[in-house]
Amino acid sequence: MDLTLFGLKLFPKLTLLTEFNIFVFSSPQDEVAAEFTSLTKTLYDLRKAQEPAGYGGSPLAQLVVENFDEEQIWQELELQNNAVLTHFKNAIDGALSNGNLTLLSDEEMDADKEDERGVEEEEEGATDDENVSEQEEQLPRLSKKSSVEAEEGSDNYSEDDSDIDFDVNALEKQKKDKGKTGSKKKVVPSEVDDKFFKLSEMETFLDDIEKREGKEDDNEDELDYFRDLPSDEDDEINLDEVMSSKKKKTGKSSRDLKYKDFFDAVDNEPDEQQSDGDDDHMDDSQEEDGEEIDGEDDTEEEGDDDRSKASKKKVTFDLSENEDSEGEDIEEILKTPSPEKTELKSSFEKRQEKMSQKIEELENAALAEKPWQLLGEVTAQTRPENSMLEEDVEFEQASRAAPAITEETTLQLEDIIKQRIKDQAFDDVVRKEKPKEEVFEYKKRLTLDHEKSKQSLAEIYEQEYIKQTQKNTEKEENPAHVEIQKLMDTLFLKLDALSNFHFTPKPPVPEVKVMSNLPSITMEEVAPVSTSDATLLAPEEIKDKNKAGDILGDIERTKTDKKRERRHIKKVKRLKIKEKEKRQKVKEANKTGESKKISKTEVAENLRKVTKGGKATILKDEGKDKALRSSQAFFSQLQDQVKSQIKSTKERSEKKKKHIEVSVSKLKL
Amino acid sequence: MDASENGATAPEKHDEGESFTKVKSKKSQKRKLEPDGGTTMEVEQPNKRPHFPPISADKLRGSDEMRKVAVPAHRYTPLKENWLKIFTPIVENLQLQVRFNLKTRNVEIKTCKETQDIAALTKAADFVKAFVLGFQVDDAMALIRLDELFLESFDVTDVKPLKGDHLSRAIGRIAGKGGKTKFTIENVTKTRIVLADTKIHILGSFQNIKMARTAICNLILGSPPSKVYGNIRAVASRTAERF
Question: Which of B82, B123, B139 to substitute to test the interface with A, most A CBs within 10 Å?
Fold first, then answer.
């Protein structure tokens, strides 16, 4: 305070000096200069002393002026001023951004203050000095005081938060009252107006934008509309976040925000919809700010507020049932739709109509779903039934297509057939016969020579070569020559024999030797190189197999075999006898007239037959008959016989007397 | 040499007449036909291609090549006996120079001026090598006469690792009684085979060598000779049919 008073006192003094002694300054005034410098120094020192820690000012604690040039002193001051300038700038920015928050409740206000401190890049808890400066900046604005006054008054205020808060609260209440009244100031109903859109508001907004664009500041406060809004507890909030105060009220994260958080309810009267008291405050403040903009040079913050407010009301989602393109909607509404003129449209108009129709069609076609023909790979399920039949499909085939059969082709074929029949040129299949080569012949072709070859390898190849090149040359002897030679030879031989004493006959002419053309192996080797049973005859081929089967010896026979043999013998014999009898009968029949003397053999035969059948027995004198040995025996026997006979006749008187044959064997005599 | 001689004679002539006369170089004399005479030499016309006069054949000939074939002791005497038959075709037909180096016991073959065909050297070397391996001179001569003949060598142990008696039996199987089997193979396949203890050398054309080699390998592996005969007969007839 001393400083300021001191300063205040000095200033008029100095100005007085300047007023009266204006020409004093034409020459260098050392005294005045010294006074000035000392004054500046004391001012600086005092200010520096009162500066809070971490203020961010110049590092110089005192202004050094002894033996310093003016230029140097200026530089020192500049150092301090630059530092302080940035500080003040930030303070102003913070104040601007927090302009809305001043009307909120106390807690939020405090929070805002804290945020602002954080925003202003100061680590420690800010002093009330700053708050004071900010608040004071806001307050005068709110209370419609000039900003210049506010800045000046900042130094005058004490460092009491409570007073300020109280003031702010009071102001808030003021604001509230004003806000309600001033909400409907600008709404001018027009035909275009919708639930969401108001023409007059749009116009005002456009005007403001234009104004703002005229004096564009450096855009420090551009909103990042796409950035995610942090939650309440987040301390590191920048200016931009602070601006978007919507999060504060609702306490939601950005992801949970709904339409009603951003925009008014659908009705035209926003203050009827009080979903959030805070919202309302917010709206009011914003509206108020918006109203003030017309009167003042607004800062960016206010402009942004307005922008956001305007954008809020500017939503024009066309939810109506109109299927027409949205862009045309407003235009159609704007130009008063007159009844369609059916009479006399100009050619241009007609063309335009057609064009527009065509355009519409094309657009619809473009927007609509493509037909299945144009969709890439189409399966049977994706296209209608039998639709492929109506299509002319073009595709490539790897193989040759089968020939199309037409009448012409058949006629051609028939012509060929007829011609062939006439020519008897049938393509008959010729039976193939496998050339059978005997092993013999085959072996003949390659004879194996087991001896060292007489010709050397060179000669062998030579001969082969000659054979290949000269196949057809053959030396043929003239048969006449051969005969002449032979005759001559014989002649000379005879002459030699006649003329010479010591005749030595010529050596014999080599005879024609019969060479059997067998492979040398068979000639050379005594034992056949290989023998096989295949060449021999089979035993069956030598002797036929017995129909009876295997020949068995006497010991090997089983019972059945023996019986079989016996049967066989008997059968054979029976047959023989029968044949004999037949012959006999035939013979007898032939010689009936001749003596009937029975031959000895026949007698014997008869006897045998008789005795065999058991019909008669030959009485042999063997001594077996007891009855003949003694008379007593004989008579007793006779007696017995007669008795039995009488008995039998008595018993069977009626019965025919059977001719009882008395068989010796039965009597067992 | 001739050129230098001529050049040498030229100054002498001059010297006789006058002393210390300037002698024109031979080169300049040669190029009289050129318009500028002796002054224009290399640098004057760089665009023109360099002119090389045709050289005679003997200058074109490189240095003489030589081949050496070592002769083991057991082939020394047969070499001596057949020396005439050996060197005659080499020298007369192939126009090469051949000698037997007694100190190193090598047969050395060299090209000379008269050699027309440089490939003859290889042929001659192969011929001598074949003889040294054990083939007859007449058989080895085929190498000179025919281009397509080759020489293949392999060991019995390469086919199947045999030791002791098995090895001896295998060699016996290959040879056969009195060399029968070996001759049979030779005759059927039109090759020549030399059986030197465990080493086998085959001389013949490529296909025939293959046939003979298959037959011998089968014998080593243990097939009986009759089977081998059958096989080679079949193969030989097939090849004969083709040609």
Answer: B139
Residues in Cβ contact with B159 at an 8 Å cutoff, skipping those fewer than 6 apart: B217, B220, B221
How far apart are the C-alpha atoms of B174 and B171, rounded to whole Å? 5
pLDDT per position as a tens digit, A277-311:
444 444 444 444 444 444 444 444 444 455 555 55
> Residue A568 pLDDT more than 70?
yes
Is the distance from CB of B97 to CB of B111 less than 8 angstroms?
Answer: yes
Token couple for A560: 């059945």
pLDDT confidence of residue A280: 47
Nearest to A458 among B141, B184, B237 (CB): B141
DSSP labels for A427-487? -PPPPP------HHHHHHHSPPP-S--SS-HHHHHHHHHHHHH--S------HHHHHHHHH
pLDDT at A128: 47
Q: Are A267 and A62 in contact (CB under 8 A)?
A: no
CA of A445 vs chain B CAs: smallest distance (Å):
8
CA dihedral sign of residues A566, A570, A573, A579: negative
CA dist A313 and B155 (Å) reads 106
Pull the structure tokens for residue A224: 């990042």
| Residues constituting chain B | 243
By Cβ distance, the residue of B145, B179, B237 closest to A452 is B179
Residue located via tokens 């969709």? A375
Alpha-carbon span B72 to B69, nearest angstrom? 10
Phi then psi for residue B151, to 5 deg, are -125, 125
CB contact under 8 A, B226 and A460: no
Scanning every residue of chain B, which has its alpha carbon at the shortest distance from the alpha carbon of A465?
A: B146
Contacts of A530 in chain B (CB under 8 A): 226
Question: How many CB pairs lie under 8 A apart between chains A and B?
Answer: 59
pTM equals 0.34
Strand, coil or helix: what is B106?
Answer: strand
Find the length of chain A: 669
Q: Hey, what's the torsion of the CAs at A31, A35, A38, A40, to 10 degrees?
A: -130
How does pLDDT run across A113-161, given as a tens digit for each residue? 555 554 444 444 444 454 444 455 555 454 444 444 444 444 444 444 4
Cα angle A354, A356, A362; round to 5 = 105
> How far is Cα of residue B224 from the mean position of the Cα atoms in its chain?
38
Distance between CA atoms of residues A232 and A111, nearest Å: 10
